[in-house]
Amino acid sequence: MTIYNVSIPDNKDSFFREFLELIGAKYEKKQDTFELSDEQKKILDNQDDFALSDYEDNDSFVAELKKEYGI
């Protein structure tokens, strides 16, 4: 069996599905676009209050963990 990963324009979707059914192909439709809910958008908008200086540098954090756990 051969497996393909293809992207089909929205206006050709029904034709493509009919073609797949005609040739007896097994397929799974995956939608790669999504929309955030209003609640999720509000959460992201509220994150503007954080300053980059509030966050620890990744390298120093990893070094601290290694020191603490003797890795």
Secondary structure layout plus pairing:
Blueprint: H1 13-22, H2 38-46, H3 58-69
Quick structural overview:
With 71 residues, the protein is an all-alpha fold. It has helices at residues 13-22, 38-46, 58-69. The chain has a domain at 36-70.
Task: Give keywords.
71 residues; mainly alpha; 0% strand; elongated
Describe this structure in words.
This protein is an all-alpha fold and 71 residues long. It has a domain at 36-70. Helix content is 44%, strand content 0%. The protein has helices at 13-22, 38-46, 58-69. It is elongated, with a radius of gyration of 24 Å.
Elements, N to C (H/E): HHH
Ends distance:
46 Å
- Indicate the proportion of strand residues: under 5%
Averaged pLDDT, please? 84
Envelope shape: elongated
